[in-house]
Amino acid sequence: MKKVFSVIFISFILILSACSSPKSGSPIEEFNYTDQDGNSFGLKDLKGKVWVSDFVFTNCTTICPPMTMNMSELQEKVKEKGLDEVHFVSFSVDPEIDTPEVLKNYGKSFGADFSRWHFLTGYSQQEIEDYAPKNFKTVVKKPRDDDQVIHGVSFYLFNKEGEIIGEYPGDKEVPFKQIIKDIKAAL
């Protein structure tokens, strides 16, 4: 019984650590994927820029539409403040379905400014399921018998060095004022 309890306890700790928030100032690994225009886009394209990212997928029936609407609202608030150098990156968690064309239509439906908002695909399901927890400390998992992907709902703010400096709820009660304040400090 003691052995079973130990295994459960260790599993619980591992799960908690895997789902913890990314450490402030944490750099992420280089990436180079495909954007909504079919072009190569990666971390090198964001060098020297402040950016906000999230994880979504286009056939999501629950959380992604509100998250993407909130990202669109943040995009507009950033424009209103004249913070034109800020970029946005949405990683698809369902890359087999989310082709560049599908992502472009999805972005258009939310008023995305594609000169500053990049929707990424061009990797395997396994790649994004490995990349997200390793770099963002968030889960991405596509169940075998379901078309809905499990993923985190945070917005992540990056500084010009490509380091995560903030994490915020992206689904509801988005702290827009705090994000704008933090963006201004990062610029």
UniProtKB/TrEMBL annotation:
Residues 1-20 form the signal peptide. Pfam families: SCO1-SenC (PF02630). The keyword Cell division does not apply. Keywords: Copper, Signal. CDD domains: SCO. SUPFAM superfamilies: Thioredoxin-like (SSF52833). The keyword Signal applies. Residues 22-187 form the Thioredoxin domain. Belongs to the SCO1/2 family. PANTHER family: ELECTRON TRANSPORT PROTIN SCO1/SENC FAMILY MEMBER, LINALOOL DEHYDRATASE_ISOMERASE DOMAIN-CONTAINING PROTEIN. This is SCO family protein. The lineage of its organism: Bacteria, Bacillati, Bacillota, Bacilli, Bacillales.
